């Protein structure tokens, strides 16, 4: 069975993910260190982890299986999911792939160094309606692909 894991602390597409999961009858884990309201949906499990760096990421990486889907912006978490033959999607709908994860990790390191040195001070562009729409399309496609893999 395909499960969905949401890195829920700062995820802007929790509701969209739950709608798609409900349509397909998929168990969904919302993993957070607190501050997330429980869902009334029976297939949704709220997992509260201890506060601390990477606690939610570690829980997801320890529980995700082949063909499961992770919704995250966290590149190292996405890499860990891909290592377990799971799928990972950013909230804007861009999938993490085996071919691209190495470059994404390297770019993350470079950008972090540039921010620490003061070379770059801005953050990512604001989340948009088109990001949300692209996410819904990609999640639906990914769920169908994962169900076929199973």
List descriptors.
single chain; 150 residues; alpha/beta; Rossmann fold; six-stranded mixed β-sheet; 5 helices; globular
| CATH topology annotation | Rossmann fold
How many DSSP helices?
5
- CATH C-level: Alpha Beta
What spatial form do the alpha-carbon principal axes imply?
globular
Distance between the ends = 7 Å
What structural class is derived from the secondary structure elements? alpha/beta
**Secondary structure: number of strands:** 6
Low-confidence stretches: none
- Helix fraction, binned, reads 40-55%
* Main β-sheet description: 6 strands, mixed
Rg, nearest Å: 15 Å
What is the H/E order? EHEEHEHEEHH
Q: What is the overall pLDDT average?
A: 90
Work out the strand percent: 5-15%
**CATH architecture heading:** 3-Layer(aba) Sandwich
Strand order across the biggest sheet? 3-2-1-4-5-6
Task: Describe the fold and architecture.
This protein is an alpha/beta fold and 150 residues long. The protein has one domain: Rossmann fold (3-Layer(aba) Sandwich). It is built from five helices and six strands. It has a six-stranded mixed β-sheet with strand order 3-2-1-4-5-6, sandwiched between helices. A hairpin with a 5-residue loop joins strand 5 (87-89) and strand 6 (95-96). Helix 1 (14-24) packs parallel to helix 5 (129-149) and helix 3 packs antiparallel against helix 4.
């Amino acid at each position: 069975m395909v499960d969905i894991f949401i890195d829920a602390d700062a995820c802007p597409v929790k509701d969209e993910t739950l709608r798609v999961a409900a349509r397909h009858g998929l168990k969904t884990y919302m993993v957070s260190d607190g501050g997330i309201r429980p869902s009334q949906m029976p297939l949704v499990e709220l997992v509260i982890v201890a506060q601390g760096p990477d606690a939610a990421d570690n829980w997801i990486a320890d529980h995700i299986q082949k063909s499961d889907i992770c919704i995250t912006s966290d590149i190292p978490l996405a890499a860990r999911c891909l290592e377990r033959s799971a799928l990972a999607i950013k909230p804007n709908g861009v999938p993490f792939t085996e071919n691209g994860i190495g470059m994404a990790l390297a770019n993350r390191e470079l950008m972090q160094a540039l921010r620490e040195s003061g070379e770059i001070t801005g953050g990512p562009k604001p989340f948009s309606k088109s990001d949300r729409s692209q996410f819904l399309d990609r999640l639906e496609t990914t769920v169908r692909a994962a169900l076929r893999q199973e």
